[in-house]
Design a protein that fits this description.
The chain has about 210 residues and is α/β, with parallel strands linked by helices. Helix content is about 50%, strand content about 15%. It comes from Kluyveromyces marxianus. Its EC number is 1.11.1.24.
Length: about 210
């Protein structure tokens, strides 16, 4: 009777061990779930999409040597200004962009160009540029006695081509650019008001020597 009980226990233990091993093998050979594979694929796809957008943005921007675009913008008096006409009449043209008319930094920048205008105008046409309306530009010009036109680019068409959109939806990056004989010669994106004034003037005077 003792032997029979012991044999029964051994048989039961063996069966339990086999069941455990079988379950273990089942767990080991179980394929990865679809959920796990879905976690990595969107990440790779997102990275590719971001890289593509960066490349497209760079390709759509004007680079040094590119011709000024055939665009027409309104000035502070709501009058059309053809960029092509401006470039054809002036060997050098400097555009300085500011985020918002009549704000402190933009006022310093615009007034800096105003204070240096007598020297700049001997060599280049000067234009302020922002996404503000013609009315806001007019108020800015009048209040600060600005002697040059302020161009309104509410859709940020020219601003976008110049690479100065702050975000795809809104905003302007403080910058300046110089066109020589209708082609982009200097591109300075994201500068302080003081650097825009000092470097812009310096670059105009240097380029004037080569004309």
């Amino acid at each position: 009777m003792v032997e029979l009980r012991r044999s029964s226990r051994l048989s039961a233990n063996k069966t339990a061990t086999q069941d455990s091993d079988s379950n273990s093998d089942s767990i080991k050979t179980q394929p990865k779930t679809k959920t796990e594979s879905k976690v990595t694929k969107p990440k790779e796809s997102s990275k590719k999409e971001i890289d593509t957008k960066v490349v497209e943005k760079k390709l759509s921007e004007l680079q040094v040597g590119d011709e000024i675009p055939d665009l027409t913008l309104k000035n502070q008096d709501d009058e059309p200004v053809s960029l092509k006409d401006v470039a054809s009449k002036n060997p050098l043209v400097i555009f300085f962009a500011y985020p918002k008319a009549s704000t402190p930094g933009c006022t310093r920048q615009a007034c800096g160009y105003r204070d240096n205008y007598s020297e700049l105008k001997e060599h280049a046409a000067v234009f302020g540029l922002s996404a503000d309306s013609p009315k806001a530009q007019k108020n800015f010009q009048t209040k600060q006695t600005l002697p040059f036109d302020l161009l309104s680019d509410p859709k940020r068409e020219f601003i976008g081509l110049l690479g100065a959109k702050k975000t795809p939806a809104s905003g302007v990056i403080r910058s300046h650019w110089i066109f020589k004989n209708g082609k982009l010669e200097v591109k300075r994106v994201q500068v302080s008001p003081e650097v825009s004034i000092q470097e812009g003037k310096k670059e105009v005077l240097e380029l004037a020597k080569s004309l």
